[in-house]
Every structure is written in structure tokens, then in C-alpha cells.
Specification:
The longest helix has 15 residues. The chain has a 4-stranded antiparallel beta sheet, with no helix packed on it. The model has no long low-confidence stretch (mean pLDDT 93). The protein is built from 3 helices and 4 strands.
Length: 101
């Protein structure tokens, strides 16, 4: 299992388009067998900065299959116009068991 933290800085005027395209991708991702969870957060007081927290069961599936899904094409093609700079992607691997109440 791996979690991807992806930070986006959206160009002024592109926020709604960014959210629309990303929402469409997230809705399709939910249907994937190896998908575990995803959460999108806006950075406090920065309406054009977002962090996506995305967890998948199998890294190889993400790299070899998921990133190439047809529903991601429009999203990937639009990124240069949507973003002020490249995405910042951090890959996290669990090193402590999940905590529960």
C-alpha cells in the first residue's frame, strides 16, 4: 500500500476548471479495484493551492495501469494550462500500524 501526496498550485482563473477535471478523475478512480481512498484539501487561506491524498493498494498497478487509464487523458493534457508549476508528488509507505480508538 502506498499513499501519494500531490500538491497543486493552480493558475489564477483556472480553479473551477481544475476542480471539475479532477473531480471527474476522482469519481472514476473510486471504481478501481486497487483504489483505497482519496481526499482533496485546499491549503488554508490559499484558494489556488490544493493537496491530494491518494492511497492505492499496489504501486505497480498505479504506475503501469492507473496512470494510463483513458479517463485521465483530459486531466493530464490540461495540467500545463491549469498549474503555475509542476505538481509536487511525495510517495509515502506505511511504517507504523494504523491507530484506532
Amino acid at each position: 500500500m502506498e499513499t501519494y501526496l500531490i500538491r497543486f498550485t493552480v493558475r489564477p482563473g483556472q480553479r473551477e476548471r481544475f476542480l471539475g477535471l479532477l473531480t471527474a478523475v476522482l469519481e472514476q478512480m473510486r471504481k478501481e479495484k486497487t483504489f483505497i481512498d482519496a481526499r482533496l484539501a485546499q491549503v488554508a487561506d490559499k484558494p489556488n493551492e490544493f493537496v491530494l491524498h491518494e492511497t492505492w493498494a499496489i504501486r505497480e498497478d498505479v504506475v503501469n495501469v492507473q496512470l494510463n487509464r483513458p479517463y485521465r487523458r483530459d486531466w493530464h493534457a490540461a495540467l500545463p494550462d491549469l498549474l503555475e508549476c509542476e505538481r509536487d508528488i511525495t510517495i509515502l509507505s506505511p511504517c507504523w500500524p494504523a491507530m484506532s480508538d
